[in-house]
Amino acid sequence: MLEEKILKVDFAQEDACAEVLPRSPLVSSYHAQWDGIRLDIYRQPAHETPEHAPQQHIISINTAYRLTKAERVIDGHFQRENIFNGDVAIIPASTHHISRWTSETDFLLLSLEPAFFNQIILESLDLQGVELTPHFAAPEPLIQQIGLALKSELESDGVGSQIYIESLKTTLCIHLLKHHSIASNKVPQLSNNKGLSPRKLRQAISYIQDNLERDLTLVEIAAVVGMSMYHFSRLFKQSTGLAPHQYVMNSRISKAKKLLTGTEKTIEQISEQVGFQSQSHFTNVFRKFMGITPKAYREQVKI
To answer: What domains are there in the chain, each with its CATH number?
Structure first.
């Protein structure tokens, strides 16, 4: 008798989900082209997937507000699951997987490229040969938070700040290393230090201020001071009290306020000059920071 072939699924392909799921994603980051990671938002009926092996690390985050009864087989290990909102399952790349659930449910699927994961781990902590371990559905608040933050970015005018997305991806990789990896007991303890040197901090801040009109990335800012994304992000926050993406956003809003009150440029022109890809995105972010729209702020200050 011939051995049944296991379906290999490449979740980097646009319609990969059609091989294992009955419905296409409601929203996908496929066309956003996020480097190393993809997010798909699903609402699926009761279903049983065929046995398959994903080519990426797959992270499923349940977003349904009702209990989902399910059964799952990961690498030959069976478990019945009562899945609640926020529960997370992890299927490492090349792991055989079957999942079946008995009612319509909502979930996010993050597919993480193994090469990207390994690169982050190598650059951040100088570790090699790290392997993720399977994880049946259970609460994982940080992964849930990262997934929802990525979802929010995806749904925000269809675009997201690259530096913020990179920060989320890096945080996810480090969390997976520390809590869902066979190398987790080898992760070095990070020393307490005083952040970036004054020279490197000046270099980073100068680069940010000179390039606010661009969709800055964590990679390029870290490269200016010759550091990995992870180490730069951690030391920058120690120096400034803000994560790089928070500092960039604060700087954009600060510059926008000056342009709104000190120039006659249109709000659309200002939004472009401070790095927003649309006026509506700029307006929404400005309102979150200041409590009023850019137009209202300009009128209020000029009174």
So the answer is: 7-186 (2.60.120.10), 198-302 (1.10.10.60)
